């Protein structure tokens, strides 16, 4: 399989055109010499080699570029440099090894020899590359069908290392160990549609949450269950049985991806219990595709397998095949020395 071009798609989107059209009406006459910010978008694969993108050509027609000034925002993990390719200024973009998939923005100004200054924006989406051998339309994993295809298929584990909830320690102290809030409350604070008041020992009062599985509006934190998207015992049977205690705890308290833990109504959480999509789907019909998208993303993030029935069930939701799955950061497996709990 030939490796896909790291520069996958670019060019102005409809939104850009709309913004530019709008700017025609909002640009004061005296500023006519300095065209408004233009936006370009690229997708680069995680861990790809550097990609060179021409500095937005808007002003090249107006004369040679004298200076390009970078003012990067949200790009701490993306290396940027202005280079010349055949005399044409380019931005050299390279995600660091640790760069997480997601969207990053760069704002830069360019000054031409004639003194014209333009401000431009580059939106860099770092995407999840497809592993070798997985067929995709464009080398990028970004749909439910593609993630489903990329996941390992294996029967659910039925060996001697039996599932025990207490071997998946949760909730722990969370991202902020000293704030008095455990993982559950940290996530509830992050997901609240109206923030609750936070009292001593992180007691939560008031606030509002919307349960993604059934649409229930909940105004009492005590009635929000924090659900593992892929339930602990389902994870165990899908590969986590072989993990050590630290990885299990990391999984059980995962705040590295907002899809892993989700605040939902207690009734929907209890009806879901430890079931996978072959056995349970959210009661809210409009939640189907989002649920499958988040499910395959979480399995992929943690390198968990699908069983045959589960894969068949996900695939049977043909309306969701093309549903987008936002980029996923895979949690690396420990190199060696993994001792399974017994
Ligand atoms: Ca794709
Ligand atoms: Ca905490
Ligand atoms: Ca399963």
Automatic annotation (TrEMBL):
Residues 1-31 form the signal peptide. PROSITE patterns: TAT (PS51318). Residues 254-279 are annotated as: Disordered. InterPro entries: TAT_signal. Keywords: Signal. This is DUF1524 domain-containing protein. It comes from Nocardioides yefusunii.
């Amino acid at each position: 399989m030939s490796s896909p071009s790291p520069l996958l798609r670019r060019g102005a989107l409809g939104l850009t055109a709309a913004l530019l059209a709008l700017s025609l009406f909002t640009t004061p006459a005296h500023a006519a010499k300095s065209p408004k910010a233009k936006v370009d978008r690229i997708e680069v694969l995680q861990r790809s080699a550097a990609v060179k993108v021409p500095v937005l050509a808007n002003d090249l027609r107006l004369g040679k570029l004298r200076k390009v000034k970078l003012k990067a925002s949200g790009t701490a993990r993306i290396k940027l440099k202005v280079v010349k390719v055949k005399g044409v200024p380019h931005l050299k973009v390279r995600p660091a090894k640790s760069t997480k998939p997601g969207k990053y923005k760069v704002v830069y100004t360019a000054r031409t020899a004639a003194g014209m200054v333009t401000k431009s924006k580059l939106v860099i989406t770092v995407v999840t590359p497809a592993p070798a051998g997985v067929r995709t339309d464009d080398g990028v994993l970004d749909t439910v069908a593609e993630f489903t295809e990329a996941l390992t298929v294996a029967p659910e584990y039925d060996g001697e290392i039996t599932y025990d909830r207490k071997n998946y320690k949760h909730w722990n102290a969370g991202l902020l160990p000293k704030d008095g809030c455990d993982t559950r409350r940290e996530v509830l604070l992050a997901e609240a549609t109206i923030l609750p008041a936070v009292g001593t020992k992180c007691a939560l009062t008031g606030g509002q949450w919307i349960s993604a599985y059934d649409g229930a509006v909940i105004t009492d934190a005590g009635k929000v269950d924090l659900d593992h998207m892929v339930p602990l015992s389902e994870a165990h049977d899908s590969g986590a049985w072989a993990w050590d205690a630290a990885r299990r705890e990391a999984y059980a308290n995962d705040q590295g991806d907002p899809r892993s833990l989700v605040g939902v109504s207690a009734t929907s959480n209890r009806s879901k219990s430890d079931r996978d999509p072959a056995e349970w789907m959210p009661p809210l019909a409009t939640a189907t595709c989002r649920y499958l998208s988040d499910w395959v993303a979480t399995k992929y993030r943690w390198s968990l397998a699908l069983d045959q029935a589960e894969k068949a069930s996900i695939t049977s939701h043909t309306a969701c095949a093309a549903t987008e799955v936002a980029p996923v950061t895979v949690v690396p497996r420990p190199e060696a020395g993994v001792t399974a709990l017994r």
